[in-house]
Design goal:
88 residues, alpha+beta, Mth169, Chain: A, 2 helices, 30% helix, 32% strand
Length: 88
């Protein structure tokens, strides 16, 4: 089975986010004064193949050991079956 994973990596709430603060200030300077508490993170999309349990186990290991820093970052993922297209 083929799967598509969407992985979201963000700084933990207790970690300061200077990039988020810079984006927030820029938005305020552009007139978007209602914006607050901006946090910047990473979005990773990848495809995997295998049995459901095996894919989830691999994805958990990848996100914990390689794609995020568990001391500073929180990570979550969504996994869905990939739809095979028949485009020519």
């Amino acid at each position: 089975m083929n799967y598509k994973a969407k992985i979201y990596v963000t700084l933990k709430k207790s970690i300061l986010d200077p990039q988020g603060r810079t984006v927030e200030r820029s938005l305020h300077n552009a007139g978007f004064s209602s914006v607050q508490n901006v946090r910047v993170g990473k979005f990773i999309e990848l495809e995997l193949s295998g049995e459901s349990f095996e894919v989830k186990t691999q994805l958990e290991a990848m996100t914990r050991d390689i794609l995020s820093n568990p001391i500073m970052e929180s990570v979550r993922f969504e996994l869905e079956e990939a739809v095979m297209s028949s485009e020519f």
